[in-house]
Amino acid sequence: MDSLIQYTGIIASVWIVSGIVVASLFYPGYSHSRQFCSELGAFGSPAQKLSPVINNYPLGLLFILFGYYLISTYSLHMPTIVIGIMVITHGLCTWICGFFPMDADPYTTEPSMSCNIHSWSGMIMLVSFIVAPIIVVFSSMYPFAVRVFSLLCIIGCFYFSYRLSVAFKARTIPGTYQRLSYGFQILWLFVYSWFVVS
Q: Structure pTM?
């Protein structure tokens, strides 16, 4: 079991991409460039019930297991323990985002309580995977290459988050920039997971 848990970070990185693709197949006319990932499980979505089952719930479990692995395996290495806590936080918020769907219209001026909970959980998810690579950047216990890579992922995440904000206001292609922003976080998790396992 321990040998499987150590790979859960890698599995989660691949799962999230494939899960979004699969869920989108059950949403006729879904646009990956114009729509957010969370719209797959939004109120009234054709994939409302399916999306969290194949995305949020298993992904949350994978994140939590990987966070547990980091904490239990590197119990004397405080930076890695904090990263583990951030990964577990990411997993818990992934569950919350699945349980509380966003509203069908992301531009609604009066979001429901469920949508507000979803949005705040999403914000915590974003922050947790910014804090984690920042810890790597400033920890001398990690190799220089891993630290530089973590910094580049943070920069990429911030840049595309800014582009996302602009695209959302302009109502153009926020989905593209959301995927690129979160993509840098998932890329970081994938490479970091490989480093930890090796």
A: 0.95
